[in-house]
Task: structure prediction
Amino acid sequence: MNNGDIKEIKIETVVHGGDGLGRIDGCVVFVPMAVPGDLLRVLITSVNHDYARAEIAEIIEPSPSRIAPRCESFGKCGGCQWQHMNYDEQLRAKMEIVRQALVREGKISEFSLQPIIPSPQGFHYRHRMQFSVNHRERVPHIGLYREKTHDLIEMESCHLAHPLINSFLCRMRELFLHHDNRYIQGIDLTVDGEGKKLILVFHFKRGDDEDQKQLYEQIKASLPEVFGAVLRTEEYKKARTLLVDGQQILYPTIGFNLFVGPETFIQVNCEGNQVLVQTVLDQIAEATQGNRLNILELHCGAGNFTLPVSRLAKDLVGVESCPGSIELGRKSIWTHGITNCQLFDKSDFKGVKFLIRSNRSFDLLLMDPPRCGCKEVLEYIPQLGVNHIIYVSCSPPTLARDLGILVQLGYRVDTVQPIDMFPQTHHVECVTRLSR
Result:
């Protein structure tokens, strides 16, 4: 098999990253935009020593799970990968991605993989989006990049975005026709939990503060739901940030509303977040058998888990490296009158080392690290006396790696609960409970 060959292939499954997987003469071949069950004619684009990559040249026989995508930009922009796959198949594929990661990468042989929990919404679930802007032939274009490129795909709306974000896109195009916008590079948008307020972050490569404020005022006059904005100019040696109007909106978690800002980390699927937080609460209750214990939370952010978990804890310590998130988390805790929480502005590593030096001990550890995981702190967890761990992860390969380390440290993987927070994409969230 060589580059440029045309071959026939049957797609067996999909893998982390979203590509279909099949075999040609025993060699694994990855095919983007393929669906399990597809019979394809493909063009070989690269050959390595143990696998190859290919592109679809012809769909000989479509999979029963293949459907027509809703979005005309699907397959061009990098926003989603699986609109051409029915939702039942998406869920099945995500279950298999998690299973394969745990077995192959984590080398974990014993675990209980629970049926995946679907997202409450399949479309228009994203409460935060980031759009790029470029200027071809002096005409501004707003959209998303083609995957793994800087080729902008212009779009009138996004089927994953909250309707208020799509309303903004429509109005923004109208304003582009009448305002000097040549310096805009990107726009980030966040919708509050009720879907009534929108806060913005504008990224300018240079420009005048008054011109930028004038653009904001025109946007707000056109779309009253706009609540506030960050105007960020990234000009070399003249970088500056201008805050206008409101900077905090409310975002719901189980039983509470959190204060979040335009750049605070949030789970973009607001309704799915309710499912995620409830799952974490259920797993903690299962681990503690209803007893109120000392709980440590790493990567606590602005308090998405912290506030609900405080109801199950005797004392709760949160650690977070982002000062802005800590400030908002403390404000939410104070507003709701919670008295058993203490938040530290530290990295997970420095936070754990500080707590060990302070002779602190905890019955349960809750952690929700970024996609890279938390490999560097795992070896210190037993020194904190932790008997139960709840690990929330958005990356099955990273989760599998870290679980493998925790198993070597004497912990047992009790249950893994996948949750679909990102329909139409290959991404999947997992809540894993461990004990020793």
About this structure: The chain has three domains: 6-66, 92-121+269-435, 128-250. The mean pLDDT is 94. The longest strand covers residues 51-61. Residues 128-250 form a domain with the OB fold (Dihydrolipoamide Acetyltransferase, E2P) fold (CATH 2.40.50.1070).
